[in-house]
Amino acid sequence: MTKLEVCCYGVDCAITAEQAGADRIELCAAPKEGGLTPSFGSLKMARELVAIPVHPIVRPRGGDFCYSASEFSAMKSDVAAIRDLGFPGVVVGMLDEDAHIDMARMRQIMTLCGEMAVTFHRAFDLCHSPKRSLQELTDLGVARILTSGQQQSAESGIALLKELTHSSEGPIIMAGAGVRLSNLQKFLDVGIAELHSSASRLVASPMRYRKAGVSMCSDTETDEFSRYCVDGDVVEAMKGIINMNSVRVA
């Protein structure tokens, strides 16, 4: 059956996703950066409070995926900490200056991961050659690749997603970026094995007093009194469609 991974920016969202039927959680911080490494406190709480598999992302900053020596050192420390906390998987990825998989560094990461399942994240969507990268990630032994099919949204990249799914001899191809309730069936119809969605809604801050003219963000137009949270009803509805599809196929 197709699995649904929900991207969660906090432990509360992870609990909501689990209760609604998600199969797995990608745990992140910093949604406006596209997901960064969660804090140690969040990692510990996730291990204590969430029963389904949680795969934290290891990403030291936003932007590209070509990292300095100090950034890579921090990533290795984070991977080791996540492994030692007992997580079943981790989400990570890095490229070299020519937008190929940084094989030397990824080999080090794979060794550090031990028994953890490794998801290579959407750095794949910035790589120079998706077919070459698929083979390299197969050789490395990664469990899955999170990708939009090298397009801004997975729906736009569905042709490459289908091609990668049917040609992969190792990693599971997981479609992500703009996967939502309204287009879910399109991915099921082409045989995508795993789907990644934020399944979110905008939630207003509970604060009654709001200081005008002071922002904590460099983008002063950002609304800091609202944030996106996982919508349990959406997760439940997505899982319902997936379950019905599996019955129809069977």
From TrEMBL:
Pfam families: CutC. The keyword Lipoprotein does not apply. It is found in: Cytoplasm. Keywords: Cytoplasm. The keyword Signal does not apply. Belongs to the CutC family. The gene is cutC. GO terms for cellular component: cytoplasm. This is PF03932 family protein CutC. It comes from Winslowiella arboricola. Transmembrane segments: none annotated. One of its GO terms (molecular function) is copper ion binding.
